Amino acid sequence: MSWNKSSVPASSGRILAAILALLLFSLEAPALETDPPDGTEIWLVTYGPGEIYWQRFGHNAIWVRDARLGLDHTFNFGFFDFKQENFLLRFLMGRMLYFSAAQESSAEFAQYIDENRDIRAQRLDLTPAQKEKLIHYLLTEIRPENRDYLYDYYRNNCSTRVRDALDIALDGELSESSDAIAAPMTWRDHTRRLTVGDFWLYLGLESGLGLYADRPVSLWDEMFIPGMLAEAVGDGGIRLAEDRILFKSSLEAPPLHPPMVWPRYLLASLAVLALAWLACRWLSATVLARTWFTISGLAGLLILFLWFGTDHLVAGLNMNILVFNPVWLVFGFWKKAGRLALPMVGIVSAVSFAIALLPGQYTADVVAAFLPLQLAAAWQLNKAV
């Protein structure tokens, strides 16, 4: 829980706002001329990005209001359990188990308002048959024997599951209208724009994502982002009866397109070199160089493991293996190899720089952050021979 300067829980004000927003909503809803004659309302709910790293991409759910069935619940597919068997191993291997669940809408909305995240609700103009089909599907999905699924960050996540549920209710109309249309941005573009505010998370993802994240995708694929699914609905993929903002966050909205941030990583790299130069008054420059090559080589082994040893599809064909080259381990442990460090690193650096300039995998940020360190370490080892 966060606290403001007046020592009052910030969450208290947000929860109060949630109660007021939901009260106003419930009072207004019956008076609407567009209320469905069958008494069933289906809403697509989209939650904006939050401050914590796992909240950067947003979230969504399907909200069902049906007094006859006793439903005023949100159905979403974004739950996981830290206590599941082999949790860390599953996470590393790309085999995380997520599950679907339903909870009372008021409780869920209060949670997201407490996290200071946008809540957008879009009432879908579905036929009674489509609503019945969707509700049946959702109730089936939350059954204990059906609720678990293998999570994939881009192909099978909380948003794609909501997308697929709507598509089933529409007999494939959503996929037919979006699968053949090219999206203006790639999976990497969306990843970059949504994480750019987090220096280390952004750089870590840029280091680990391979060429597959840069391939062209369709509007259907782009709906792995909850906000893009909301826009697809709003642009006519599904007819809307209403579109409301239930809560507006005070957080800064992420950029619509990925900005150019490689200069900040180049400056950070130069700052690290300056600190290393100062540290050489007390530490051996050669030891620092060998330590850095050891770290880089181990990072290269991790990239290879993610590429070949896990189910993380987007970690494959990763050209950052040139920057984080496992061969650098030789320079970390074999002193006589130091004379080869500068020419080898120089060649690899030239190739990496060329790749950064060419179409294909976006590597500019990783190149800016780490090539200066590689070249400086190689120069030091070559000088020490």
Oligomer: single chain
Give helix % range: 40-55%
The assigned structural class equals alpha+beta
The main β sheet shows up as: 7 strands, antiparallel
Spatial strand order of the main sheet:
6-4-3-2-1-5-7
Q: Compute the number of strand runs.
A: 7
Low-confidence stretches: 1-12, 23-35
Number of domains: 2
Specify Rg, calculated over alpha carbons: 25 Å
The SSE order reads HEEEHEHEHEHHHHHHEHHHHH
Total number of helical segments?
15
Give the end-to-end Cα distance, rounded to a whole number of Å.
Answer: 55 Å
pLDDT averaged residue by residue? 88
Overall morphology: elongated
Residue fraction in strands: 5-15%
Q: What can you see in these coordinates?
A:
The relative contact order is 0.11. The chain has helices spanning 10-28, 87-93, 105-114, 128-141, 158-169, 173-178, 187-195, 199-208, 219-222, 226-237, 262-279, 285-308, 328-333, 338-357, 364-384; strands spanning 40-47, 59-66, 71-79, 97-104, 119-124, 148-150, 240-247. A 7-stranded antiparallel sheet has the order 6-4-3-2-1-5-7, sandwiched between helices. The protein has 385 residues and is an alpha+beta fold. Helix 1 (10-28) packs across helix 3 (105-114) and helix 7 packs antiparallel against helix 8. It folds into 2 domains: 10-183 and 218-247, no CATH class; 262-384, no CATH class. It has 15 helices and 7 strands. Strand 2 (59-66) and strand 3 (71-79) form a beta hairpin.
